[in-house]
């Protein structure tokens, strides 16, 4: 049995035609037929039966072709991985990280990646989610970690998206706020409150839709510095709305100086934090390893 014979039977099953398969494989029909006959003789069973309508799989042949497809996929993985390791030169992995996002386990992932790939140079670049998408399309970044919502999902034609985490919204209030008596909050309960808001692409989009739908609110200030915002909330000067990711990042929550309360509203579809890569690019072994480690850390975080 040869690899080429596995490729032949998979091709014939796709076209249901020896002539079309021979044309696609760039060999003669007689050579293809002889090769299939030899394989059938070696296996002791018929893989195909022939009729006026074409060449079709037998019951046994379907199972053989399924296994052949899996073997060919494994062989491709071996070849791809070997190609990655052929080049001893150092590689660079450029990762776009949405502004304002802090992942406490990111440094651990980078350390693990560097231990597997000592010559790998890793660059982290903070941008807005749409800027990251554009940089991926221009091949200025290899991977993007960003907010997946209506503005970024519009550019999905050449982009591959993977969900990491569902981004539910929370209201953050001072420990002495009367709002702490509620197990969840609705937008109507917040309209008489003073807000401080993070000045970033995704939160600006969210807050604009929020006020357009529910009405204007008083905004004390906006800032691209999340520590400044949380400090104002901690001092009881205002409240803020932030994503669920803030729950794992904020030290004031652990000290109970800030209280997060789920926000219940009905105008927003589910939004997510996710990974984006370029569809056409062959994924390097370093990129695959980074994504695998990142997904594993998020999976552990969700469990906890």
From TrEMBL:
- GO MF terms on file? DNA binding; DNA-binding transcription factor activity
Q: Does the keyword Transmembrane helix apply?
A: no
Pfam families associated with the record: HTH_1, LysR_substrate
Which CDD domains does the UniProt record give? PBP2_LTTR_substrate
The record, for PROSITE patterns, names: HTH_LYSR
Q: Which GO terms describe its cellular component?
A: cytosol
Which controlled-vocabulary keywords does the entry list?
DNA-binding, Transcription, Transcription regulation
Answer whether the UniProt record assigns the keyword Transcription to this protein.
yes
- Record domain HTH lysR-type: where: 1-58
Which InterPro entries does the record cross-reference, listed alphabetically? Answer: HTH-type_LysR_regulators, LysR_HTH_N, LysR_subst-bd, WH-like_DNA-bd_sf, WH_DNA-bd_sf
Family classification: Belongs to the LysR transcriptional regulatory family.
Protein name listed in UniProt? LysR family transcriptional regulator
Q: Which organism is it from?
A: Virgibacillus necropolis
């Amino acid at each position: 049995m040869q690899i080429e014979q596995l490729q032949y039977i998979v091709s014939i099953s796709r076209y249901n035609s020896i002539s079309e398969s021979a044309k696609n494989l760039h060999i003669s029909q007689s050579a293809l037929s002889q090769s299939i006959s030899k394989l059938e003789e070696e296996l002791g069973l018929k893989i195909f039966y022939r009729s006026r309508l074409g060449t079709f799989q037998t019951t046994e042949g379907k199972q053989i072709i399924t296994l052949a497809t899996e073997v060919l996929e494994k062989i491709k993985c071996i070849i791809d991985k070997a190609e990655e390791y052929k080049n001893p030169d150092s590689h660079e992995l450029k990762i776009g990280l949405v502004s304002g996002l802090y992942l406490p386990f990111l440094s651990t992932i980078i350390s693990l990646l560097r231990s597997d790939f000592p010559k790998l140079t890793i660059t982290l670049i903070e941008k807005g989610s749409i800027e990251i998408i554009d940089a991926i399309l221009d091949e200025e970044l290899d991977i993007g970690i960003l907010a997946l919502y209506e503005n970024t999902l519009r550019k999905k034609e050449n982009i591959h998206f993977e969900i990491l985490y569902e981004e539910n919204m929370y209201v953050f209030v001072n420990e002495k706020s009367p709002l702490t008596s509620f197990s969840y909050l609705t937008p109507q309960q917040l309209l008489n409150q003073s807000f401080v808001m993070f000045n970033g692409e995704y939160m600006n989009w969210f807050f604009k839709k929020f006020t357009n739908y529910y009405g204007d609110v008083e905004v004390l200030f906006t800032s691209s510095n999340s520590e400044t915002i949380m400090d104002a909330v901690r001092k009881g000067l205002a409240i803020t709305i932030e994503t669920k990711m803030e729950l794992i990042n904020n030290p004031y929550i652990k000290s109970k100086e800030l209280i997060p309360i789920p926000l219940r509203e009905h105008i927003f579809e589910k939004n997510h934090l996710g990974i984006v890569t370029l569809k056409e690019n062959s994924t390097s072994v370093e990129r695959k390893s980074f994504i695998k480690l990142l997904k594993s850390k998020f999976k552990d975080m969700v469990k906890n």
